[in-house]
């Protein structure tokens, strides 16, 4: 019997899949949702602002749906997933993207700042993963992705709370990849570099020297595009990545490898 040859478009397709993307109304989350839809998936985006979600869904098209949800309310994750299952079926992809950012010196970072940042990222992603994993297992397996950061990999000043949260993601990824692998659930992380988003524009506004420093340490000497993260998430969720589990993939133009 002749062995069937792989078909490229099938290997990278998300047709028939349902994905949940937290913080999917703007920024990287919206780009991830855009690439998922383009690859054949149905996508539920979540976030706190109803108007933002509705605008995003109108741009994403008929295969996108919105559910208002605040990841800081960890106790509501289970009811969110119940709503999603009843309306749209079993998800097979979860992207833990929602987060917050605190840029302050150590001396100015309050314990409340620190706890709030960790709660948003770690507690929120934990609760979403705990609520979604049984449904992904029931669906026959799938992919869970954590959107990490350069601060997961290298030291950056003035972001101690954010760095602690994003480094914590990597520990969660490795543990969950080991635990959920037997259920055919792969758990990976993407560590974006400096990507052209409104958040980056605000961070660099009026600071041309910082822009120069960032580009000087990026071998490709440019910022990334939001779709660079979206297509990476699509790949990690597709059959093409069926044996990738517990990995942290930097999408940073080489910035994390050093000078």
Short description:
This protein has 259 residues and is α/β, with parallel strands linked by helices. It is built from nine helices and seven strands. Strand 2, helix 3 and strand 3 form a beta-alpha-beta unit.
Assign an overall shape: globular
The helical percent reads 40-55%
Distance between the termini: 52 Å
| Proportion of residues in β-strands | 5-15%
The tally of beta strands, per DSSP, is 7
The SSE order reads HEHEHEHEHEHEHHHE
The biggest beta sheet, please? 7 strands, parallel
Secondary-structure-based class equals alpha/beta
Radius of gyration: 18 Å
How does this model look, in words?
- The protein has helices at 8-11, 27-38, 50-60, 77-88, 111-138, 160-180, 198-204, 208-216, 226-237; strands spanning 18-22, 42-47, 64-68, 93-96, 142-147, 185-192, 248-251.
- 45% of the residues lie in helices and 15% in strands.
- The protein has a seven-stranded parallel sheet, with helices on both faces.
- Helix 2 (27-38) packs across helix 9 and helix 4 (77-88) runs parallel beside helix 5 (111-138).
- The protein is globular, with a radius of gyration of 18 Å.
Based on the model shown, name its key terms.
259 residues; alpha/beta; 9 helices; 7 strands; seven-stranded parallel beta sheet; globular
Break the fold down into its secondary structure elements and pairings.
Layout: H1 8-11, E1 18-22, H2 27-38, E2 42-47, H3 50-60, E3 64-68, H4 77-88, E4 93-96, H5 111-138, E5 142-147, H6 160-180, E6 185-192, H7 198-204, H8 208-216, H9 226-237, E7 248-251
Parallel strand pairs: 1-2, 1-4, 2-3, 4-5, 5-6, 6-7
Helix pairs in contact: 2-9, 4-5, 5-6
């Amino acid at each position: 019997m002749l062995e069937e040859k792989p078909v490229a478009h099938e290997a990278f397709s998300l047709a028939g899949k349902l994905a949940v993307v937290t913080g999917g109304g703007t920024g990287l989350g919206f780009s991830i949702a855009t690439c998922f839809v383009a690859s054949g998936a149905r996508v539920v985006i979540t976030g706190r602002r109803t108007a933002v979600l509705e605008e995003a869904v109108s741009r994403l098209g008929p295969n996108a749906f919105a559910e208002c949800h605040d990841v800081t309310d960890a106790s509501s994750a289970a009811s969110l997933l119940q709503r999603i299952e009843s309306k749209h079926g079993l998800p097979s992809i979860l992207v833990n993207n929602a987060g917050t950012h605190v840029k302050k010196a150590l001396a100015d970072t309050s314990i409340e700042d620190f706890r709030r940042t960790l709660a948003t990222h770690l507690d929120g992603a934990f609760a979403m993963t705990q609520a979604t994993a049984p449904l992904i297992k029931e669906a026959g397996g799938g992919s869970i992705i954590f959107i990490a950061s350069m601060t997961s990999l290298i030291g950056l000043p003035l972001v101690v709370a954010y760095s602690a949260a994003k480094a914590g993601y990597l520990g969660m990824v490795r543990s969950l990849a080991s635990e959920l692998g037997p259920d055919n659930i792969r758990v990976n992380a993407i560590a974006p570099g400096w990507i052209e988003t409104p958040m980056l524009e605000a961070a660099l506004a009026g600071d041309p020297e910082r822009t120069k420093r960032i580009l000087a340490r990026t071998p490709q000497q440019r910022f990334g595009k939001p779709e660079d993260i979206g297509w990476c998430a699509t790949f990690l969720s597709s059959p093409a990545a069926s044996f990738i589990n517990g990995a942290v993939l930097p999408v940073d133009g080489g910035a994390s490898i050093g000078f």
